[in-house]
Write a structure and sequence with these properties.
Layout lengths: L17 E6 L21 E10 L10 E4 L5 E3 L5 E7 L6 E5 L6 E4 L8 E5 L17 H10 L1 H4 L5 E13 L2 E14 L9 E11 L7 E6 L3 H4 L19 E11 L2 E10 L8 E8 L4 E9 L4 H8 L7 E17 L2 E17 L6 E16 L18 H4 L1 E2 L16 H21 L1
Parallel strand pairs: 2-8, 11-20
Antiparallel strand pairs: 1-12, 2-5, 3-4, 3-6, 6-7, 9-10, 9-19, 10-11, 13-14, 14-15, 15-16, 16-17, 17-18, 18-19
C-alpha cells in the first residue's frame, strides 16, 4: 500500500514519502543479472576507508562530512562512523577536510589514509557564554523567519548537476529483507526560483526476499524523491510555509560552534490544541548569517488512525497498519560562501497487525541520499522528461540484482553498515551458487 500523500499543502506532508504493502506469498530470489559489471580497466582512483570518532570518548560520529579540499568530492560516515572515499588519482596529493556539527574541523593529507584501520578523531568545540551574539534575535521565531527570508541570497543561485548515492532498506525487526541502492544524477534548480528538481537514474541494484516479510510485501514508492523533498530550504512549503509557521512554538535550546561559526539550536513543536499531526525537532542556524545548516525532526504521531491515513494507501484485508515513528534529517554544505543540499534521510517504523494472529510485526524503512560530487551547469542541461525517473517510482522494481563488488566503480557510496554488508555478501554467495548450478 503506497504511502498516501495529500495534494493539500495544509497537511504539510512530504509528497514523495510513499510506502507500499501488498499481499505476497511467493519468494523472490535475488536476480542473477550482472548487467552493470565494471570493465577490467586500470583504476584511475584511490580508495580510502576508516572511522570518524570523538577524541575524548572514542564514540563513533554519525554522518560526519568528509570533503576533498578544493573539490566538490565528498562523502559521509555511516551510522557506525565508518566511511569509504574514492578519490581520483589527480587529487591524491590534496587534503581531506572532516567536519561535524559541534566539533573542530580537521584537515589532514589524503596520503595519510593509505593504510588500513584509519581513525580520525575530532575534538569538541566548546562555546563560551561570552561568545553569544548579543545582537542575535531575541525571538526564536523571528530568527527562523529571517533564515527562510534570506534563502535566495545564501543558497545556490545557479543550476547544478549533482551526483548522489541513494540507499533504501526495509527491515523486519533487525533483519534486512529488502535492499536497493542507486547512483543518481540530480539536476538541482536554484534556490531562488520556484521550480522542482529532477532526478535521473544512472546505476541501480536491489534484492528483496519476500519470504521474510510474513506474507506481506513492502515497497517504498518515490525512491530518491523521498529524500530530496526533505530539503526544507528548497521546499519550505512542506513544513514551514508562511501560513503554517504560526502553528509552531520556537524556542532557543543551546549553541554550538563548527567551522568557526556560531550555531544556534532552535527547538520547535506544534502548539497544543492543534489536532493535525505536524512536526517537532531541531533547526541548526548560523546566527550571524541567518543560514540553516541542518535540521533533525519527526512527525508528531498522536492519532495512529490519522497517521495511517497519511502514509498507507492500500493494504490486505484483515490487517491493520500504522506508523510508530517517522523522522527526517537534512544537512547542508558550504562552497564559496553559498550553501547547498548535501545529505538527507527518512526513517519510518510501523506495525502490521493481523486480525487472526496473536502478535503483530514490526518493520522499519530507511531512505538516505548523499551528494558525492557536483558541478554548475546551464539550465539547458536539465534532463528531458523521458530521462527523469517518475516521482511514483518503486526503485526495488526498477533495479537489477546485486552484482560484483566493483559494481560502483569510481562512484562514492555511503559505507554499508555491518548488517547491510552481511546481507550483500549473502546475496553475492547466492548469485555465485546460482551461476554454478546453471553451468
Amino acid at each position: 500500500m503506497p504511502l498516501r500523500t495529500s495534494s493539500l499543502i495544509s497537511t504539510l506532508q512530504f509528497k514523495a514519502t510513499l510506502l507500499c504493502i501488498i499481499g505476497a506469498l511467493a519468494m523472490l530470489l535475488p536476480q542473477s543479472s550482472l548487467a552493470f559489471q565494471q570493465n577490467n580497466t586500470e583504476l584511475d582512483y584511490n580508495e580510502y576507508s576508516g572511522e570518524v570518532k570523538e577524541a575524548s570518548s572514542n564514540k563513533a560520529l554519525v554522518f560526519a562530512t568528509l570533503t576533498v579540499e578544493g573539490t566538490n568530492i565528498s562523502t559521509i560516515s555511516n551510522t557506525e562512523g565508518n566511511f569509504l572515499l574514492k578519490v581520483p588519482k589527480e587529487h591524491a596529493s590534496k587534503n581531506l577536510v572532516v567536519s561535524f556539527l559541534g566539533y573542530k574541523t580537521k584537515t589532514l593529507p589524503i596520503s595519510s589514509l593509505e593504510r588500513e584501520g584509519n581513525e580520525i578523531s575530532l575534538e569538541v568545540s566548546v562555546t563560551q557564554l561570552s561568545e553569544i551574539n548579543i545582537n542575535a534575535p531575541k525571538n526564536a521565531m523571528d530568527l527562523v523567519k529571517e533564515t527562510l527570508k534570506n534563502r535566495d541570497e545564501n543558497y545556490f543561485q545557479d543550476p547544478s548537476l549533482m551526483t548522489a548515492f541513494y540507499r533504501e532498506t526495509i527491515k523486519r525487526r533487525r533483519k534486512n529483507v529488502s535492499l536497493a541502492e542507486a547512483v543518481v544524477n540530480v539536476y538541482k534548480t536554484p534556490y531562488n526560483i520556484v521550480r522542482e528538481d529532477a532526478v535521473e537514474l544512472y546505476k541501480a541494484r536491489k534484492s528483496t526476499d519476500y519470504s521474510k516479510l510474513d506474507t506481506v510485501a513492502l515497497k517504498l514508492q518515490g525512491g530518491p524523491y523521498n529524500t530530496l523533498y526533505v530539503d526544507m530550504m528548497k521546499y519550505p512549503e512542506y513544513i514551514f510555509s508562511e501560513e503554517s509557521l504560526s502553528n509552531y512554538k520556537f524556542t532557543f535550546d543551546r549553541s554550538v560552534r563548527t567551522n568557526d561559526r556560531l550555531i544556534y539550536v532552535i527547538r520547535f513543536n506544534q502548539h497544543e490544541g492543534i489536532l493535525e499531526p505536524l512536526y517537532q525537532g531541531e533547526l541548526y542556524i548560523d546566527v550571524e548569517n541567518k543560514i540553516l545548516t541542518g535540521a533533525i525532526f519527526s512527525l508528531n504521531i498522536t492519532d495512529r488512525e490519522q497517521a495511517a491515513q497519511l502514509f498507507v494507501r492500500r493494504k490486505p484485508a484483515k490487517v491493520d497498519v500504522w506508523p510508530t515513528e517517522v523522522s527526517y534529517r537534512v544537512d547542508y554544505r558550504e562552497k564559496n560562501g553559498k550553501w547547498h543540499y548535501g545529505y538527507s534521510s527518512v526513517f519510518m517504523e510501523f506495525k502490521v497487525d493481523w486480525a487472526d494472529k496473536w502478535f503483530n510485526s514490526q518493520y522499519s524503512m530507511t531512505a538516505e541520499m548523499a551528494i558525492t560530487d557536483w558541478e554548475t551547469v546551464s539550465k539547458d542541461e536539465r534532463p528531458k522528461y523521458r530521462q527523469r525517473i517518475r516521482k511514483s517510482i518503486i526503485l526495488s522494481d526498477e533495479a537489477s540484482g546485486f552484482s560484483d563488488p566493483d559494481f560502483w566503480g569510481e562512484y562514492n557510496i555511503i559505507e554499508p553498515e555491518k548488517s547491510i554488508e552481511s546481507a550483500i555478501r549473502k546475496i553475492q554467495r547466492q548469485l555465485r551458487r546460482s551461476e554454478r548450478n546453471s553451468d
